[in-house]
Amino acid sequence: MIDQSWLWVVFTLLAAAAQTARNAMQRELTTSLGTVGATHVRFLFGFPFALIFLAAVLFATGHSLPHPPLAYWPWVLGASLAQVLATGLMLAAMGERSFVVAYAYIKTEPVQVALFGLVFLGDSITPLMAVAILIATAGVVVMALKPGAGASGSMRSTLIGLGAGSMFALSATTYRGSILVLDYPDFVVAATFTLAVGLVLQAAVLSLYLALRDPGVLRAIGRAWRPSMFAGFMGAFASEFWFLAFAIATAASVRTLALVEVLFAQAITRFVFKQPTTSREALGIVLVVVGVALLVWAH
Predict the structure, then answer these.
(1) What is the DSSP string of 248-283?
(2) Which of 56, 124, 265, 291 could form a disulfide with 135 if both were Cys (CB 3.0 to 4.6 A apart)?
(3) Is 101 within 8 Å of 161 (Cβ atoms)?
(4) How far apart are CA 105 and CA 102, in angstroms?
(5) Distance (Å, rounded) from C-alpha 158 to C-alpha 206?
(6) Worst-scoring range by mean pLDDT, 12-21, 91-100, 188-197, 270-279?
(7) How many Å apart are CA 166 and CA 111, to the nearest integer?
């Protein structure tokens, strides 16, 4: 019998690695599709794979399709819209002169997830887990805030960053709430079903938005379907493991451990692009590693 208490760690690490690959592909697509178009690829080309995952899980387990209660829909709709709004705010942060400041505030997400989880789901946070979350988050902020960045920060960029972090935190919390409200006996089915529902809703909302506001982007996405397919698959693959982790661990734990994605990106910068690691970045890495290690040990 597999000890499920450790599965969330494996799920989260797989999700973070897959998300790093997806982000790399989306960055390449940005040049041809624009930022909004490259972001929409995640949903539009991701939901067919989520449906395939759901069909495969139902076939493998022999379970039937869940019949969610009425209370399920506000949770999953709120989670889907919060993630779309979070993405929009993050894109707005990219347009800010002091983006690095906004990014640092976006990465306060784990702290905000802990608060939302406590308020909305009653997810308990032990003192040691709280310390771990703060240390790991501080490590990311240290890496993000370069010398002199604070001076260029504005109230606008601060609010955008905090708003994006809040929406990402609210999305993670309410997706976990959706899975719990579904109350399905198999957590794999519950997580995969919720992923499929969420991606279908997001693809529909953003497709409608682009059809009304900028139909040319949709046509450009259609022409770039081959690379978009890979980005969509990696996005759905990453989300599948995020949701599996949400099903068996608090959103705060998952999103804090997810900060290892920053370490993956730093490793690529150091070993692939041969860019040296500064002393500030090294301090941030140490803080992230210590925080993540404390969090896993606290479980």
Answers:
(1) HS-HHHHHHHTTHHHHHHHHHHHHTS-PPPPHHHHH
(2) 291
(3) yes
(4) 5
(5) 26
(6) 91-100
(7) 9
**pTM of the predicted model, to two decimals?**
0.88
Q: Which residue, among 101, 53, 50, has the nearest Cα to 76 in the 3D structure?
A: 50
Check residue 259 and give its pLDDT: 86
Domain boundaries, the chain: 4-298
pLDDT tens figures, 156-177? 777 888 888 899 999 999 999 9
Determine the length of the chain: 299
Residue 247: name the closest of 188, 193, 174 by CA.
188
The SS3 assignment for 193 reads helix
Q: Residue 148 corresponds to which tokens in the numbers above?
A: 């002199």
Helix/strand/coil for 214: coil
**CA–CA separation, 90 vs 93, rounded Å?**
5
